Amino acid sequence: MPGVPTIAETLPGYEMFGWIGFMAPAGTPSAITDRISDETRKIMQDPELRKRFLAAGMEPAGNTPAEFAAFLRKQNDRYGSIVKQAHVKLD
Q: What is the pLDDT of residues 32-51, one digit of tens each?
């Protein structure tokens, strides 16, 4: 659409990507979340599964519960900032 600025032109530094992650209720014992994380990381190393993810345009990964929590905090901070810059208000 000629004349319509891109999102990046309107909101410098804007970047969007999708992700999939597992979450558990607050207070779930770390032994359980660690096991889910460990098993998920093992599964993500399977060559056939990796091939299928890559063919679908996804990058298979895996991280620890602490790393995922840090990622979520970073995403929340980032997109919260964008919402504030854009003066988005809930109805």
A: 999 999 999 999 999 999 99
Q: H/E/C letters for each residue in 27-39?
A: CCCHHHHHHHHHH
What does the radius of gyration of the chain's CA atoms come to, in whole angstroms?
18
Q: Read out DSSP for 3-63?
A: TPPPHHHHSTT------------TT--HHHHHHHHHHHHHHHT-HHHHHHHHHTT------
Which amino acid does the sequence have at 26? A
The single-letter DSSP state of residue 79 is H
Terminal-residue alpha carbon distance, the chain: 29
Q: How far apart are CA 23 and CA 54, in angstroms?
A: 23
Q: Quote the Cα angle for 48-52-58, to 5°.
A: 130
Q: What is the pTM of this model?
A: 0.67
Q: How far apart are CA 68 and CA 84, in angstroms?
A: 24
